[in-house]
Every structure is written in C-alpha cells, then in structure tokens.
Amino acid sequence: MLSRNLHKLTRPLSTSTRAAHSVGFIGLGNMGAYMxxxxxxxxxxxxxxxxxxxxxxxxxxxxxTVADSVESMTDCETIITMLPSSPHVQATVxxxxxxxxxxxxxxxxxxxxxxxSKNLGEALAKExxxxxxxxxxxxxxxxxxxxxTFMVGGxxxxxxxxxxxxxxxxxxxxxCGANGSGQTAKLCNNLAMAIQxxxxxxxxxxxxxxxxxxKILAGIMNTSTSRCWSSDSYNxxxxxxxxxxxxxxxxxxxxxxxxxxxxxxxxxAAGAVxxxxxxxxxxxEIYTMMESMDMxxxxxxxxxxxxxxxxxxxxx
Length: 316
Description:
Elements: H1 15-20, E1 23-26, H2 32-41, E2 46-49, H3 53-61, E3 65-66, E4 78-81, H4 86-98, E5 105-108, H5 114-126, E6 130-133, E7 136-137, H6 139-145, E8 148-153, H7 156-169, E9 170-177, H8 181-209, H9 214-222, H10 229-232, H11 256-272, H12 278-292, H13 303-308, E10 310-311, E11 314-315
Parallel strand pairs: 1-2, 1-4, 2-3, 4-5, 5-6, 8-9
Antiparallel strand pairs: 7-8, 10-11
Helix pairs in contact: 2-6, 8-11, 11-12
C-alpha cells in the first residue's frame, strides 16, 4: 500500500521507491498526456502506452518508460486508464489479466457506462485486485494545471491507497460511493455541461445576430443569472476568451464526438431508471447532427458554429 508520504510530492522519489511504486498509464490523449506528465513531474515512475507513437515519445522525453504493448505493463503496481469508451476499457482489463498482471490497483479515469464499470470492479475483486472509477472534470486546462476534479467510485481503502496519485493530478477528489458511482456523477455533470454549452452558444449567436458585441454580451452573462462554466471559463465564441478552443478553430479541446458519446451514455442510463431527460435528448440530437457534418473532431463548443450554419463544406 502506498505511503502517505507521497501526498503532494515536492521532490523526486528515490530510485528504489520509484521502482516499487510504478504507475502504468494507458491512454495519452488530450487529457491523459497531461495527467501522466504531472505524475512524472512529481517524481512518480510512469510506464506509458498509447497507439499514438508521437504521444508516447513526447512523454518519454519527460522521463517515462515506454511500453510497446499493453501486455508488457504487467509489472506496474497501479494501472491508470484514460480511454475513449467502455469496450476499450474492457479489452484492456482483459488483456492485462490474461497476461498475468502482478499489480494491485486499477484506476479508470475514462468515462464509461456505470454498469460496465461496476462489473469490472467485481471482476477485478475476484482476482484480488482493487479498482476505482475516477472520471474527471476540468477539461484540458485542468489536466495541464493539475486541478482536475476526480469523481471516485469504489472502496474507501482502495481510494486511500492511491489518493496521493490523484492529488498529484487534481485538486478535488470526491468519493461518490461504490464502484460505478463515479461514472454516474460524471455523466450527470457532462449532461448538464452539454446542455449549458448549447444554451450559451444559442444566446451568444442570437445576440450577435441582433448586432450585440459578443464580448459585451458574454460580460453581462458572466455577471448575471446565466453565468456558467461554458460561458465564463470556456466561452464558445471566438475572441471572447484567450486560451480556449474557440480561439484555435475549436482544436485541442473536448471533441464533439466524445460529448455525443457521453450524452448517449447519460441518456441510456437515465432511460434504464426512467429518469426524464428531454433537454439531454434534444442536445444529443444537435451533437448527432454535428457528427453527420464531420464536426466530431472539433471541440464541443463548435456547436456555436453549427447554430450559425458554418459547417465547413457542408450545409448545416
């Protein structure tokens, strides 16, 4: 079990300690790459794998050990996954177990189906291994700054064992309950976030169409009752905020296709318990149309351009 001395690491660990507490990180996308980098900068030994060789090489330059396959990560005491979907996570868990993974704890920071997450926890428990679902909120900026919020589902003892790692990558660690509850919290959060983004984009587009300066309108919204994260921290209108995807042609953020995936998971989970999601369903329809217009790789704030009718070579 990890030492509490790893809490908020301020100096590199010794060689022997690093070897004993190695972390395997699988999935170096826009979020995962920064999360793994923050572990490295705190002195944690990281062994990384991703299908994108450029992402792996970038992390290697920062001191990570590179794995040439998932099977070659069986020596990692802790595994962290940041993968696109439930099937990816299921396949990775199966591969590691079949390869004889010697580690103790699995941290899944992907956003997946809560039922799948719960089932994986039960399967790992039968193998004598701990598992927490720990999806995140805070976006790419939060991942880079190490200020993510982790929504954790799992046993308290398992969380305590790996909490120092989470605290290196995030600022808020919230224990939501049993395995799967972290995923439920994440889907509820993203459902609200997507609805808010569409509403913010709709209002900004309306104001612009009526001749109102978007910066002035955004300033009013951010000091009034419509204030939300999509408006004051991640505004979708180009030029309103610096350092957000809207100022970079909606590149480098949270892809619209990923938001569509999360909306699908959220509305499916809600349907299973007969929880009404009329706004969620309408928002899902919008992102489905964006996907059909080849806008899936653009940040989900590109919904503003969709509402304006700007969909590249296709007519919205």
